[in-house]
Amino acid sequence: MKKVITYLQYGLIATILVLIIRQLRSEGTLQIVEQLRSVTLNTLYVFLLMAIIGLMVFNWYLEGKKWQLLMSPFEAIHIRKAIKIVLAGIATGIFTPGRVGEYAGRALTSDKNQKPEVITATLLGSIAQNFWNIAGGLTFSYYFLKNVFSVTNAWFVPFTILIAIQIVLLLLLYYHLPKAVDFVTNNTWLHKYKDRLTSLRLYSSSLLHRVLLLSLLRYAVYVGQYVLIMIFLHVEVSPGLMLANITGIYLIQTGIPLPTIMSIIARGELAILVWSASGVSSIIALAATFLLWFINLIIPALGGLYILTKTNFYQYFKKEDHA
After folding, report:
1. What's the pLDDT score for residue 322?
2. What is the pTM of this model?
3. Which of 97, 101, 131, 264 has its CA 20 to 30 A from that of 46?
């Protein structure tokens, strides 16, 4: 049994690595890399590139702090371990729709006796992060839709009201998630999973505030990172339009249930649609998408794969002997 699990472990790691390599060696990716090689790298642009990479490190540090906080009702985790768990989740989530596979990576590198707690923490963390993806996108959505789809000014007032209602509803859902889970599980076939989600009640309002704040900081980091990438690629558009396009892209991406390893294609097409309305060429839009994808996901995923090689899968699946 131990050998079988070991073979499965390295088979999973090899599969993820092959998928990453195949994507990096695809014809479209090579064309984008050629475009990036043409970017003039004076001192300012070297600094920008270093800042973009530095923000990636800070981004995943924040996610590690968030995981540490999310697991605090159940156990005290050192920040180093929390970051390792997060990176392992990125690696396993990279080839699954909507990155649902993140749970597997986080579970495998956590205490095996806390599977329900890991599910709860992953769910809550995802909701908090997606709240800002949606709220940020909705806040700038009118400007975004006016620029990309030529929405008229007559829609401004009803649009603002609709946005405010949606953001309030999202906040109510976040702070009253246990009640929402009770309602859903009591009235659907999901009732058999109700006991596994009871740990949601252990999260205090103050803890939820802090998780939401860390999620906001992460959102600000990767929006800022996108801005720096556009500057790095010599894109010149107004700050308001740039923020509208970026937050609009993140809003739409939140609803694209594609594996991260494949979504570079969908993200690229979306970026072309959005940025072309602002006069940005398709190759620049694709280059920005690739840089974000490679720096924010592929590099951390490779770190996560290394962590998975050091993880004892057999110990996780081994049944405890009871006297």
Report:
1. 44
2. 0.85
3. 264
